[in-house]
Amino acid sequence: MPTAYRFFFLALALSFSASAATKSKSRSVSAYGKPNVLFIIADDLRDYIGWMGGHSQAVTPNMDRLAKMGIRFTNAHCNYALCNPSRTSLLTGMLPSSSGVFGNEQDWRRSVQIAGKPTLPEHFKAQGFTSAAAGKIFHANHGGPEGRLSGWHGGRRGFEQDAAWDQRFPITGVQIPDLPVHTGQNFNGLDIWHWDWGGIQVEDDKTDDGQVVSFAADFLAQKQKKPFFLALGLYRPHSPWYVPQKYFDALPLDSIKLPEVKADDLDDVPAVAKSHLKDSHHAKILEKNLWKDAVRAYLANVAFCDAMLGRILEAVEKGPNAKNTIIVFTSDHGWYLGEKQMWHKGKLWEATTRVPLTIYAPEMTKPDSVSSQPVSLVDLYPTLCDLVKLPKPKHLDGLSLKPLLLDPASKRDTPAITCMGGGKNAGYAARDERWRYIRYADGSEELYDHQNDPNEWTNLAAKPEYAAEKTRLGTFFPREFKSAVRPASEIVGAASPSGSVDLKLNIGDELSAAEAPKLQGRGVFIDAAFEFDPDVDQDSTLLAQGDTQSGYALHLVASKPTLTVFVNGKETIISGAALDKGRVNIRAQIDTGGVITIAVPGHSEVLGVAPFDQGFPQEPKSGVAAGQSFGILKNAQHPNSTPFDGQVHRLNLTLLPPHQPTAPTRELKTAN
Measured between alpha carbons, how far is residue 648 from residues 112, 395, 514, 633, 651 in Å? Predict the structure, then answer.
């Protein structure tokens, strides 16, 4: 065969092979014959559950019933005791130290450590499951007094992952239905907008959780065409603690039992563990004699959450999916109700790290089985993969619980790890069957023996006879806390001959003051292009540098592009006309002479004057942040501030050349 023909047929064969490979990759994956997964997560639910024994007045018959259907884990813990990092850890299968996500204002979707790694629902969807969700799964919240989709530390959209779901309730892009009564009613008289409680005159099914459960009941009543992964988020007992009045009425205030506390409980803990005393909610609760009232409200909300779970279980049992649906029930973290003078969440103590965890797997779990082994929420991703026989992504940090489901009496060698803080400030707790060991970033420690001290009242860390326990548990702490942001070398360009410096930014980028180009004596030029959705990004921040003494922010206020310049604690603000939905180009400049401009070509242009004429007068103590919530914008003045959510095509920052003082001109003398 002539050489030319041989090459022709070889090329044809390679082309056919490549085409076949492409078709093979694009072929949909089938999950036919696999069991369904019903994943239910409550919010801020601690051990105030009958089977967990946290409070004798807890009314939780449905949680107790589900626990007896399968296996209950009495020693389960979150990996971070805040909503966003906890849920991020669970849904990515990555410890906070691996993802770099450790704050409620931090958009997990922008983490460079998570990029390219499938979340739990995303993985199930890619493997042929129908993925559906209702309620809060990723981080979100009530949306403040207006029930907004964004702002107020989350919003009802929150950090949703739209691509994870085939079906979404209430609608695509929104996690939490609008609350029938918005937060901030001040029923309790504390005047704390995010933490209020009281009975409301609303029927169960008209509440936000009631709407979620109604969607779930309809979904579960149908025989789905494919196996499904259905995620349901029950927002209670997250604040505001507004539930129908009947749940309060069932708990007479005079009968309420307070948590058992010790007056000098904090005397033996390190200073870093007592930061909450500076602005003490506990002091306010005592001053207004509201401790019993608050415990009652929490118990009422737990009872309501239990009633919602009961409706879900009833829908499963009456529907066509009862025999082949795995059910998981848990919470993102616990909650303090006055223990260690703490309220809310956070810290590394048992009350907030311990969570309910029950799993019912037909034909695998034995009814009424119990495991006391230390497990954590990061273990759920690999567990669910094992239970439905899916391949496990390589990035997972957790360990499958399947061996414990098969043999509840089996043992585990690894403790549950919980983190608090991030980067160089990260501290950790390790919890095994007996011990809790806490080590903070400054090296201070706590050690509790749960066999003899279940309330964690006696810190044994300073006793030399327990050094071996601390060493053993400390070996399980992460050795590195990875950064969620790109390194400065990928963001900051070299200085030009004139002294200007260009930065090519992505939303989520951060530079410390040491990494950022110097601002003193300079101006800046910003060039941005993005897709704008006023429902989500009307009060978002694109870019900020510095602090209130010396800095600026390019942000949106009620959909108006806004440039705010800070000098010595004072603000100079200019705003353009409100933007329309769609692609937007913005150019903003602060020149060294103090002239400031913001322009949207073809839409609006505004000029103003900053209070300096030789560039920014001092070097700020904070660096550059792209798409950060709050930061330089204080939440008291900007409660709706949120990271920019939409697609950003371009975000370029130029630090202009340093101001050069003009040389004085000499006066010419006329000769006599």
Answer: 16, 27, 26, 21, 7
Among 88, 240, 219, which residue's Cα sits nearest to residue 158? 88
Structure tokens at 287: 């001053």
653: region left, alpha or beta (phi > 0 left; psi from -120 to 50 alpha): beta
Q: What's the pTM value of the predicted model, to 2 decimals?
A: 0.93
437-471 pLDDT, tens digit each: 999 999 999 999 999 999 999 999 999 999 999 99
Compute the distance between CA of residue 475 and CA of residue 446 in angstroms, rounded to an integer: 16
pLDDT above 60 (res 194): yes
State both tokens at 352.
Answer: 């907030």
Beta pairing class for 228-234 and 36-42? parallel
pLDDT of residue 338 exceeding 90, the answer is yes
Contact between 360 and 312 (Cβ < 8 Å): no
| 83 classed as catalytic | yes
Residues in contact with 362: Cβ distance below 8 Å, sequence separation at least 6, in sequence order: 35, 323, 324, 325, 326
Q: Please compute the mean of the pLDDT values over residues 27-44 and round it to a whole number.
A: 88
pLDDT surpassing 70 at residue 23: no
One of 78, 83, 385, 419 is an active-site residue; which one?
83
Ordered alpha helix ranges (H), 501-596: 534-537
Task: Please give the radius of gyration of the chain, using alpha carbons only, rounded to the nearest integer.
Answer: 28
List all residues 6 or more positions away from 426 whose beta carbon is below 8 Å from its beta carbon.
96, 97, 102, 419, 420, 441, 478, 481
Mean pLDDT of the chain, nearest integer: 93
Alpha-carbon distance of 88 to 467, in angstroms, equals 33
- The amino acid at 312: I
Q: Which residue has the higher pLDDT, 46 or 24?
A: 46
DSSP string, 574-607: EE-PPPPSEEEEEEEEE-TTSEEEEEETTTEEEE
- pLDDT for 565-593, tens place per residue? 999 999 999 999 999 999 999 999 999 99
Write the single-letter amino acid at 605.
E
In angstroms, rounded to a whole number, what is the distance separating the alpha carbons of residues 247 and 207? 13
The token duo for 303 is 């009872």
**pLDDT tens per residue across span 92-122:** 999 999 999 999 989 999 999 999 999 999 9
Instruction: For residue 649, give the H/E element and its range.
Output: strand 648-655
Report how far residue 273's alpha carbon sits from residue 460's, in angstroms, rounded to the nearest whole number.
15
Q: How far apart are CA 502 and CA 494, in angstroms?
A: 7
Strands (DSSP E) contained in 206-324 are 228-234, 241-244
The predicted structure's pLDDT at residue 25: 39
Catalytic one among 139, 276, 282, 333?
139
Tell me whether residue 659 is one of the annotated catalytic residues. no
Alpha-carbon distance of 260 to 655, in angstroms, equals: 57
- With CA atoms as reference, report the closest residue to 448 among 430, 435, 465: 435
Q: Indicate the pLDDT class of residue 671, thresholds 50, 70 and 90.
A: very low
Tokens of 663: 């040389």
